[in-house]
Amino acid sequence: MLRLCWQNAATLETLEGANPPALLALINKYGKSAEPKAVDDAKAAPEQTLDARLTQLVRAAPVMVFIKGTPDAPRCGFSRQLVELLKGNGAEFGHFDILSDETVRQGLKTFSNWPTYPQLYIDGKLVGGLDIAKELAADGQLKEMLPAGARADPLIARLQGLINKAPVM
User: The domain containing residue 97 runs over which residues?
Assistant: First the structure.
């Protein structure tokens, strides 16, 4: 991951990922004299054990999925099915692309004692893979397991779906 940082007097602002409007806003804010510097996350973050990193990742959101790809662009059918299942149950969830980090991909298998992907975590605890999530959804238990803060507002979800339906709305 590449992170750009602007430092101005006592202010330090960070922009992560591809976000052109936010990047333009920071450039306009600091003017041409500000030069962004790339910070390598591996060097910027203090050393931490793999278990500590994995614990932090599984707790990054109340509902967390470890999938191949992203929710918008899953890179395997099982990941796509889990994303659709969660969205269909009104879940808001965080995600981690296991193809982006081989250490996490291999380490999580041992950490969770679950050999396959995708993996679903709720409140930092492993629920299981796609088959278990399907069973829970079929019984209506998946919705009940979702923390209140991870349940999408149906109106907002519907509006987001309409807004994202076309490039220009």
Answer: 50-163
